[in-house]
Amino acid sequence: MGLADYLRIARRRWVVLVAGLVLGVALAGYQIQSTTETYSASSTMYVSMATGTSVADSYQGGLAAQQRVRSYMELVSSDSVVDRVIGQLSLKMSRDDLRAKISADAPPATTLLRVTVTDTQAERARVLADEVVSQFRALVDDLETIERSAAPAARVAVVDRAERPREPSGPGTSKILAAGILAGLLLGAAAAYVWERLDRKVRTTDELEPLGAVLGSVTLGTDDQLDELRALRSRLPDKAKSVLVAATDRGYAPDLSAGLADSIAATGGKVLLIDTETVLVISAEIAREAAASPSVGSSGVDIDWPVRNGTVSGSAEAESLFENAAQRTTVLDTRKIPATPPVEDKASGPDQGGLAAVLRGETTLEDAVLAPGERSYARLALGDADLRTPDLLASVRFDAVLVEAAARYDRVLVGAYGTDALALASKCDATVAVVALPAPNPERVGATRDALTAAGATLTGFVTVAAPRRWRRRSGDRR
Length: 479
Hints:
kinase, transmembrane helix, transferase, kinase activity, 3 domains, 4-stranded antiparallel sheet
């Protein structure tokens, strides 16, 4: 994986990265709050040897002093020194507790010895440091005195006495916070990487290329949608009179096929969109009657009445259906919907029963097709479907409808999903498989491709459809 791949993972899994960072900062804050502040006091000593006055004697004495410093570092926290300090200061602490507060170090190639005592109280840290140095010097005098009347072979002099610390030396807030941030980022990055590797969803068009040709990608509801539909239009087979837009998920076929129909019609051809998913039928007569009703506003709109299985939905259900179908039909104002759907006078206008009525022989294709109106293409919605409609879609009656439509129009687009798409696959000249991103996994997309091919479809390729991100929709609304 390259840098671009890691950046893509970070962009896609940024929530995990932020969660890891927050967790790391929270743990660091807890560690800082739960750790008691400590103070450190230090005292520096100089170790020298009793030697002659010559240069050689001084050099040998310096080497001997450096060697002794290594041993003295161990003597600083020895039991003898610790016991003497406890007894001298009458401390109520154990030998191990005091030893844990004492540390010693020596700069390289020097005879300096630095003793540091750490305690929760600044003044007590200073007192303990001075007392440890005092008792250590006394111990060295005892150890280095060979004869009672002779001077010690080594001498330890205090260079800097311990001072009362002004600021705490621990717990090291900056270091702990930096460590928490780093650990949180590493944890978030590891979790994001593991999640990415375990995620089998198809998110990009590149992941579909091993499964077949990719005709394009369309992001619905964005400024780029028009250009993306034009690119898709240019990749459709020129000789294909009828094109099936087959989707595995409900709702994508009507949106994509409507946009594609509008794009094709913009080139000057006559286009018919057969929508086998939308059960709503638009009637100009109903719109005029609704506009004339006292309960309707002054401006007229096209109103779709949901009719399925011979029953008419109530006003509350109709409002919900209109809201869900608004993107693929028309902009609706639910305040203008009458309490009951007005009955259209068949003598005053065409029969608007939809595709289902045509398949049942109740009306003709010419009467059922909705004129373009403000649209650039004609449209035939499913209409008042019943239990027989799925079987009629798979029958020769739909073949006859398709033949008649092909004779009347330059291009016929059929939008369908699920089993209806499989039933219509062999009836159209070309098939475009719609994949909604993110798709569950490549295996499911491959199974859809195999099912369409087995049903007799002439699969042209895949087209991916994605809804715009929320922030993009909001920014578009503001514009």
